Amino acid sequence: MRMNNKKGVSTIVTVVLLILVSITAVALIAAFVVPFIKGSLSQSNECYATLGKVDVVAGSNTCFDATTNTVRVNIKKGFVEGSEIKAVAVVLSGDGKSKRYDVSNGGMSANIRELSGSYNTALSLPADGESNTYVFNVTDAGMTVVYAEVSPILSSDKVCEAAKAEIPTCA
Fold it and tell me: Are 75 and 162 in contact (CB under 8 A)?
């Protein structure tokens, strides 16, 4: 059995086809990966400006009162440039439970008030460089609060990294 008329693809054509397939694969990967990375970087830069700018201030205005089942948290806001903080998420935890409360300018809640205010009245965030104490009624949560986490919420609704503080019992 002889096969003298055997024809195949030349080596040059094979190499050119492999190069074209490789270039096409790289272009397709770049078309999907580059926009994804750019989007991730812009979101992380958004929170970078607020890193360490929202904090819990230790002292007599930050404590848990077991008799009234309330938690006082003094929140300080630093000078923030490049990002607008529209609210602050406060997560109170203890006894294996946690509950999130959002504090925003003009927001009202039956469970949050400013230290000198009343429940169900408009709240205000601290201005840059200032602090404000909020009182949280945790009766419904049914826990003894031992920690508070405070996270800035940006105008894009992104919740940034939290500052965590231990909450002592009020004296």
Answer: no
Q: Helix, strand, or coil here: 23?
A: helix
Tokens 């104490």 correspond to: 133
Q: Which helix (H) or strand (E) holds 93?
A: strand 85-94
Neighbours of 65 (CB within 10 A): 15
| Secondary structure class of 53 (helix, strand, coil) | coil
pTM beyond cutoff 0.90: no
Which among 100, 112, 103 has a CA at the least distance from the CA of 77? Answer: 103
- In one-letter notation, the amino acid at residue 46 is E
* Tokens, residue 7: 């024809």
Nearest by Cα to 93 from 56, 143, 129 = 143
CA dist 132 and 83 (Å) reads 20
What is the rounded CA–CA span in Å between residue 26 and residue 33? 10
The answer to whether residues 56 and 73 touch, using CB atoms and an 8 Å cutoff, is: yes
- pLDDT 10s digits, 73-117: 999 999 877 678 999 999 999 999 999 999 999 999 999 999 999
